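Input.
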Amino acid sequence: MSLVLVNIAAAALGVVLAAALAARAELLRRRLPALAFVASIAIATTLALPGAEGVHRWLGLGAVRLHAAAWLAPLILAGGLHLRSAGRTLAAVLLLVGTQAIHLAQPDAAQASALAIGWIAALAPNGRTGQRANELGLGALLVALALVTWLRPDPLTAARFSEEVLRSAWRDAPLWAALGAAALAWLVFAPSILWGRDAAAPLLAPENESSGGESTTAPDPAASRVDLSPRAWARASRVDLSPRAWARAMSAYFAAVVGASCVGAFPVPILGFGASPVLGAALGLGLFVLFAPVEGDGPRSQPSMRFRG
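Output.
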């Protein structure tokens, strides 16, 4: 009963959080980078707090312990996309790689994997060859750090009502287990179903599209040249994000968290005991307000949004 009450309370708080994000969307756009760095620092403070068997993932708020990354990682992912779209590349690298280093130190392979896969899902599918390779360069680094995190010893055992909740349900109450599996499927696919069908503009928009017209110049062979150097990546065109980009990011993020709970001792999101994954899901879905079209962003007829940094 306490599991149900805690998760229901977290869901109610998550609805309030999502509504607050919608009401303060413009202010949040301006403050998002700072909030993302604060979130990363908050996750880092877990390293200085008492852990469990050498694992440090939780923030203590009085009698409540919150899994920091499960709650705050969507905010960090959105902050990284904001910084990249505003051309603040080095800040984005610092935020994302720094957070992955924290995951490695904790260790938290589930959140490390989710952050890396969410980033790649948001940015990889579109863009010119050189730009796409540069985006994947950071994605490959994030994946490499996640893989190293999986190699770290993780002595935590699975708890019946957290990490083992779905497997226990399959043994004891198959009908409830099936409903739980359907809920997890909804968590993974809901972002793409609800927000992933817009006519999204290219995420890595070529510079000649900034005026809304077609280019009349001959293609530059150097544009497709792969250059993974930090200087070249910083010079790449700004990333023009759309609701579909965040839908892909969130679907991939949730899929990675669910997948990690199937292969390791990690909490099953929204079903297992704990408020943090519920709050994280609400935060991730609520952040869609940042990817809605912004008036005055240019002549594009397709819905997309360039963050204002």
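Strands lie at 58-61, 64-67.
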